[in-house]
Amino acid sequence: MYDIDATHDPKRTSWVESANAAGSDFPIQNLPFGRFRRKGSGEAFRIGVAIGDQVLDLRAAGLVDTDDMNALMAAAPAGRRALRAKLSDGLAAGSTQQAAWAQALVPQADCEYTVPCRVGDYTDFYTGIHHATTIGKLFRPDQPLMPNYKWVPIGYHGRASSIVVSGTPFKRPQGQTKAPDAAEPSFGPCKRLDYELELGFYVGQGNALGQPVGIDDAEAHLFGVGLFNDWSARDLQAWEYQPLGPFLAKNFASTVSPWIVTMEALAPFRAPFTRPAGDPQPLPYLDGAANREGGQLDITLEVLVQTAKMREQGEAPARLTHGLVKEAAYWTAAQLLAHHTVNGCNLQPGDLLGSGTLSGPTPDAAGSLMELTLGGKQPITLPGGEQRTFLQDGDTLVLRGWCERAGAVRIGFGEASGTVLA
User: Fold this and answer.
1) What is the pLDDT averaged over residues 202-221?
2) E strands in 292-356
3) Does residue 75 sit in the same domain as residue 136?
């Protein structure tokens, strides 16, 4: 696991004053990476680090000689730690770099972003046991969880080309659906459009084809974590998913936050990995002392919605979901990577591993409308009186996440938002 060092010191402040504000997502203890450019410039996207309400242009600051985020992500952990230390020292109050680096700052309000790295491959897992159980009960009341669920991390290969950055609107998908009483399917727009509250784990160093990564080494191959919304067309999914799994129901859009919070930044926010009494323990290749001691991430997540009517009336988004990752995830990020490579599969820098929907044990922690409305049977009522079973055109969905713990400075993940177009 990653060590706590001087870069996490809660007493350390920055000469970028906005980074010192209480509740900032991007204090000096965070330093997440992304790709940005000035709005409307048309220039190439560059590697930046968020600090307060600013972005530090790493090339302009003389810290990198490339705009290729994947090349930076491929560095060995020691190199990544050295870069983090240099960033932290240079941005700290009293640093001799202040005059030079101040010229390399760009206000976040003046930036536009793209997907934070080149995602060559994307795999979506199913680690949220409460989500799996609730969804399973809707379709299989007598057997909500399949027999393999507690033994193997379930996943499927997704579509990397339709991963988009926060703020990107997308069109409501079309496809085949079949009503239970219909003799044949019909074609048209999705009527049961849903979101999925997930984390995305980004691969750093890859592994060679045929060379599995052991559980004790798995985290060294992870660069960091971002927010991830795997939009889902539930009616298309119900008709198409058997026997090979999701297809058009999932590949029309998936939204990621612009920033990758590094594994180093998350060092103070780890939690033990435990299984409920009576559940099977992981097989040896998925089990390790370090994973048991601190394999879980102590992250708080929330989902908010703003309808077109709310936006027109100037109303703030309303919260739908609030929960903790450590209460939702049945498998850790290290276990996902170890399992993904155990058969010799080669992962590459920038590959994305989706956690699957992270629903907590209570209804207010459900990570999808499918759960919140029990498959559309119980509409939810928003503060202004509007009701929703599934997403309507014009709805904007926002994912947020943060870590906070006594003795550490709160860090955040920014936002992952998207708006449904007709």
Assistant:
1) 98
2) 296-297, 300-306, 318-324, 352-354
3) no
- Name the band, by pLDDT with cuts 50, 70 and 90, for residue 297: very high
Hey, what are 350's tokens?
């920038």
Q: What is the pLDDT of residues 29-50, one digit of tens each?
A: 999 999 999 999 999 999 999 9
> Which among 114, 146, 168 is the end of a domain?
114
The reply to whether 131 belongs to the active site is yes
> Which position among 8, 130, 131, 340 bears the catalytic label?
131
What is the arrangement of strands in the sheet containing 170-171, beginning at the earlier edge strand?
170-171, 411-421, 396-403, 300-306, 318-324
- Write out pLDDT tens, residues 145-173: 999 999 999 999 999 999 999 999 999 99
CA distance 275 to 96: 49
C-alpha torsion sign, points 46, 50, 53, 59: negative
The CATH number covering residue 65 comes to 2.30.30.230
Spatial separation of the C-alpha atoms in residues 82 and 72, rounded to whole Å: 12
